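Review this chain:
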Amino acid sequence: GEPAPALEKTGTPIHPRNLEGLQSAEADAASAAYIPPPPPPSCPGVISNGTVQLGVASAGHLTVPCATSIVSGGTNGTTAVGLRFVPNNTEAAAPGTPCEGWGVASADLNITGFTSAGCGAGNVTVESFNATTTTATSVVRVGNTFRVTHRYVPSPATALLYQVDVLIENIGTVPVNDLRYTRAIDYDVAPNTFSEYVTLAGATAPSVLRVDSNGFDSLDPLAPHGALPTGTPTFTDLGPGDLGAHFDFQLGALAPGRVRSFRTYYGAAASQNAALNALATVGVGTYSLGQGNWNGTGSPLASTGAPVGTFGALTGQPTTFMYGFLPPPVFSSCTVECRSFNPNEIYTVDLLGTQDICLVNSSSYIVPVGVLYRYGQRLQFNCGTYAMGTLCNVIPGPDTCNASVYDAICSSPIYAQNCL
């Protein structure tokens, strides 16, 4: 069986997987005294918007080594970068055994793949990875069934969040009838790393299959997983303990050659209110929070830790880390309009049943666009015929937009990234 958890000075048990990571780090540190240090790495995959810093691995999960970074605050600090709050240099994903990761599966076909830095990986092959100092894009294959893209970009709505767009393409030849996606993180939050409080909200949302506070559950969506009691929408301030957040999502059917896309977030803030406001700004209702076990006295950034208590859970200080999920939107309606970037265009209706036009200065005309709002953002495609059908219905009076064609356009590999 699994060894009993070891106690640290906070009185809460350290998960055996984190204990293995600590022992490995100690052994590495001891041997390093006798080995000349290597040249500093360039730390590929470490990205930042100046407030939130992420370490994105080539397979799309978080946590990469970065010997040139500053050791993170609190106990068991590390130079590895996973999910970090830049203003106070606190880190949530990298200490101990880093288990942040994701998985994708077809439950009906029994095909699965998953990846993480320290808690296992299987059936995932990296196709490409590109990163700048602020963005990263990972593309992998899961067997011959899925191509999975994770695109990390700073949120345009708030500096406290990184936007993580996920695209899952069925590259196989048969339909997937039960698509699953798993995302999990073992939160390790200062000041007393391996002893934190977690909150999980939106557990009864339509796309959520199950949630759990065990950050060490398997990232394989088809593996047996523990679960918090079903029917409860929010679990607040669970802990203290060596805890995390595990979400299993059920995303419906996916035909061959089609893409299921959705938006997630990772971020950090100096307080709980700031974190919740950031999540509300982007419309997230399904999320997790990781907060420190701290009573508000002493220095929360000291490498020796600080006194334990509920102050950290109640206020979110010194740092509240967060993950958020927005489900794939339903395409129910769209409209025919002029392009938003030219205010001089005037929508002109043709009452005879030929295509409406947008007049510019009463002399030239432009084909109108089909407009749809997704995640609060305006999308527009020229009216016309695509391989999936005709976007705009030409009728007497105002033309109408075909939402089912819009849905097909946004689930095609050609256009899916333009719809996020």
